[in-house]
Amino acid sequence: MTKFNGGPAFPSNFQHIKEEERTMVYQEWLGMSLRDWFAGIALASLNLQAHIEIPAAEFLARSAYNIAAAMLKERDL
User: Fold this and answer.
1) Cα–Cα distance between 13 and 30 in angstroms, integer?
2) The dihedral formed by the CA atoms of 52, 58, 64 and 67, expressed in degrees to the nearest 10
3) Residue-range definition of the domain harbouring residue 55
4) Number of neighbours of residue 36 by Cβ within 10 angstroms
């Protein structure tokens, strides 16, 4: 099951010239998903200490993504 990620958080497009072929190349970079951005912000707001044991770290990571999912759901209302 694919989770709804909210689309890209910081998409960008750019063009450059390939000198050896003298052609214009268009590239797109989607970056991280909005869900990942929201989870990172949620995790940062939990005011983490420097040393966290693995079970607690896994719980906090799961909590951050739960918060991100709730933020995406609320955003679509």
Assistant:
1) 8
2) -130
3) 32-77
4) 17
